[in-house]
Amino acid sequence: MNDVELGPNSAGDSSHNGENGRALGTQNDTPPAEKMRHGRRGTDPVYSAVKQGHSSADAETGVGPETENAPTNKEEAKGGNDNNPEGDEDQKKDTKPRSKKPLIILAIVILILAIIAFIWWFSTRNQVSTDDAYTDGNAVVMAPIVSGYVTTLSVNDNTFVHKGDVLVEIDARDYAATRDDASAQVGLAQAQLESTKIALEMARVQYPMQLAQAQAQENSAQANLKKAQSTYDRQHAVDRRATTDENIDSANSAQAAAQADVASARAQLTIAALVREQLLQAQNKVTVSEEQLHQAQAKLSAAELNVAYCRIVAPSDGWITKRNVQLGSFLAAGTPMFILVTPDIWITANFKESQLERMHIGDEVNVTVDAYPNRDLHGHVDSIQLGSGSRFAAFPTENATGNFVKIVQRIPVKIVIDRGLDSRQPLPLGLSVSPVVLLK
Predict the structure, then answer these.
(1) Does pTM top 0.85 for this prediction?
(2) Whole-angstrom Cα distance, residue 243 to residue 212?
(3) Which member of 93, 219, 351, 403 has the lowest number of beta carbons within 10 Å of its beta carbon?
(4) Number of C-beta neighbours around residue 136 at 10 A
(5) What residues does 320 pair with on adjacent strands?
(6) pLDDT digit string (tens) for 214-250?
(7) Domains (ranges, CATH) in the chain?
(8) CA contacts within 13 A on the Cβ side of 344
């Protein structure tokens, strides 16, 4: 019926109706907003229908909810906060800008770590260290040279002794008897030597006299032979009727006897002429006697040493460790009794072969002892062993195989401690230490 009454002013009426429509649309929007404010959910059928109608009205009028429903949306937002807080919090998180504070803190931490790493590298660039190091020293194994029963024991475990102190005494009566016998043999050898020396002096006079006597006898025999030869010639030169057979036989025998005397005198002279050899023989007897005397003296010295070896004294200052002897026990020669650790302490550090390039003898070393963390030792590099530890092992490695694997070798370095030791608290051998070598 209203459609028939439309006239020429229909356009104006349309615009007027549009305004009225917008007004009506605004009025119609209020009940759903009020319903939503009172707790209606978006899934309610009535609210959905109203909202759908509201959306169609907005499409016809060209007015959106953003312009007309601003106050209503505020109320809806308020109502949403009351009824759906979790959804509102998510919406706030999505709309709130992210803070850059964690990134700034992370960057500052990384910068600080980088500065610390640079300072550490700069301060340790001229240092090499190892944890494969330990204290070392002289450990003297004390063992008896002679066998016997222990009669005196003057030491105990871990006691300190001084050089020259008597540690152990062994029964020396048997060795004393042997010493006395050797002393008697020395006396006999000395007496025999004196006799040979006197015989040599006599030979120096006797043998030349025997030579002269032998020469005189030869001369006398030559004279007798000459006389007997003259008699023999006369007896054989005269007519046999002018002499007798007895005279001829006497001359013959006298000549033969004279010739025999000459031969004997010449033999004696030949023997007596060996004066030099005879004197040398007498001198050799003296030499033999002297050597026999030396032999007897050597036996006496050995016997005296055995008696002295029965008293075992400390070769140097040190501590007694690993005692293996008791009073009254029998000790065989060479059996270890205990170990004497001298006060001389140094450090043996096994550095890697790659750490020796800049290391030289005399470089300063700072040492930290694991057993005494508060004690700082200072020393220097004394020497570097000419060979790795595996090279001098009992069973050195053989690398002449096809499956060879290269292993970093370690070289023992001797470090002498200059200062930091405490005489009241000595360092035991074998303690773990951490040396740091200051390279030049």
Answers:
(1) no
(2) 41
(3) 403
(4) 19
(5) 340
(6) 777 777 777 777 777 777 776 666 666 666 666 666 7
(7) 10-92 (no CATH), 133-139+337-438 (2.40.30.170), 144-171+310-334 (2.40.50.100), 174-307 (1.10.287)
(8) 10
